[in-house]
Design goal:
CATH superfamily of the largest domain: Cation efflux protein transmembrane domain
Subcellular location: Membrane
Number of domains: 3
Radius of gyration: 29 Å
Order of helices and strands: HHHHHHHHEEHEHEEHE
CATH topology of the largest domain: Alpha-lytic protease prodomain-like
GO molecular function: monoatomic cation transmembrane transporter activity
Shape: elongated
CATH class of the largest domain: Mainly Alpha
Main location: membrane
Keywords: Membrane, Transmembrane, Transmembrane helix, Transport
Protein name: Cation diffusion facilitator family transporter
Number of helices: 11
């Protein structure tokens, strides 16, 4: 496979994708290939467009030029994002990669808007498009080059899990559609005098604007704080639970500081009767090993629990069964009983599934659960804290 050949030729130690230098090399290679292919396509299409007097082909040519500029910005983004942490940016500069993608997205939109105007002008003032076989063949060649570029960007983007390169792959695939429309309009010019060239140019420009808008949306999500990758979430949870004496986890939060640069915190439930120094050593070991293995910065908070036997276990099991009546409650944690005599406080946190809570307020959720507990155990007062997922 040619993609694999390029990677093996230009990237040393290319299997070590966790290494920042290797990942940076992948990004630069993807950007350089993007520049070369798009400059070639721009030259081909611009020549064909002027020769045939086709606004649709010229629009598509400048779309490729903007893609070349996008690839340059991608390279710059990877270089700046790989800068080490400093006093002003203790978690590094990884988010620069998102900003570079955002600049690219705005450039794509501006190109599309400009050529919407040009296409409308061509519809209002049509010109004859001259069809020739060789320029048509060159357009077909450009389509196959874009198909390969999309495949390459997808290959590299998946290899290093880069949102920027995955977006470039989607953008290149979109260009395959737009170039195909242009080729069809060029071919159709032999059979009709209708200004189909301007209409196709309008469709292509509209698609470019839509692609730019989609890229802006995808790039803003990590900057605004989107939910973390489910694969990373499951890995963190599974690895924390694999350590001895950690019996449960909750309140996992992942902060994204750029591709491959995350800070995460999680609460780990431990039996309350374990020696504090012993469990502290286990927690320290878990933080250190998981951080190194997953290339994140993990902080684990200890939550001692006592639900092994007796009254606490019975009450805990009853509450677990009770919350199954409410589909918008996912789980409970930090369960304990405080007080003596006839009146005691049940203290616990409820984790809500906010997408299923419908129109209920937090207070109404607490009142519903409290009322049900009172029916079972009048002597218990509920002290409930509501949690929401950050995943």
């Amino acid at each position: 496979m040619f993609c694999e050949f390029l990677v093996n030729t230009f990237i040393k130690d290319n299997s070590n994708i966790k290494d920042d230098k290797v990942r940076n090399s992948y990004g630069i290679l993807g950007g350089v290939i993007g520049i070369l292919i798009n400059v070639i396509l721009f030259s081909i299409k611009l020549s064909v467009g002027f020769f045939a007097s086709s606004i649709a082909i010229i629009v598509d040519a400048f779309n490729n030029l903007s893609d070349a500029a996008s690839s340059f910005i991608t390279i710059l983004g990877f270089k700046l994002a790989s800068k080490p942490a400093d006093k002003e940016h203790p978690f590094g500069h990884g988010r620069i990669e998102y900003f570079s993608a955002l600049i690219v997205a705005f450039m794509v939109m501006l190109v599309g808007l400009q050529f919407i105007k040009s296409s409308i002008t061509r519809i209002m003032n049509p010109e004859i498009v001259r069809f020739e076989v060789i320029p048509f063949i060159l357009l077909l060649v450009s389509i196959f080059l874009k198909i390969w570029l999309s495949t390459f960007n997808k290959f590299v983007g998946n290899r290093i899990d880069s949102a920027a390169l995955k977006a470039a792959a989607v953008d290149a695939l979109g260009d395959v559609f737009t170039s195909s429309c242009v080729a069809i309009s060029f071919f159709a010019s032999m059979f009709t005098s209708v200004p189909i060239d301007g209409f196709i140019g309008l469709i292509v420009a509209g698609f470019i604007v839509y692609s730019g808008f989609s890229l802006i949306k995808d790039t803003l999500n990590p900057l605004l704080g989107e939910a973390p990758d489910p694969k990373l979430v499951n890995e963190i949870i599974d690895k924390v639970l694999s350590y001895k004496n950690i019996v449960g986890v909750h309140d996992l939060i992942v902060h994204n500081y750029g591709p491959g640069k995350c800070m995460s915190s999680i609460h780990a439930e431990i039996p309350s009767n374990i020696d504090i120094m012993k469990i502290h050593e286990i927690i320290d070991k878990a933080e250190r090993e998981i951080s190194e293995e997953l290339k994140i910065y993990l902080v684990i908070h200890m939550d001692p629990i006592c639900i092994i036997e007796g009254e606490v276990k019975e009450a805990h099991d009853e509450i677990l069964e009770l919350i199954e009546e409410y589909e918008y409650i996912d789980s409970i944690h930090d369960f304990r009983i405080v007080g003596e005599g006839q009146v005691k406080n049940l203290i616990f946190d409820i984790v809500l599934n906010s997408s299923l809570k419908e129109t209920l307020t937090d207070e109404e959720v607490i009142n519903k659960v409290t009322s049900r507990v009172k029916l079972l155990h009048p002597k218990y007062n509920c002290v409930i804290t509501l949690d929401k997922h950050f995943l």
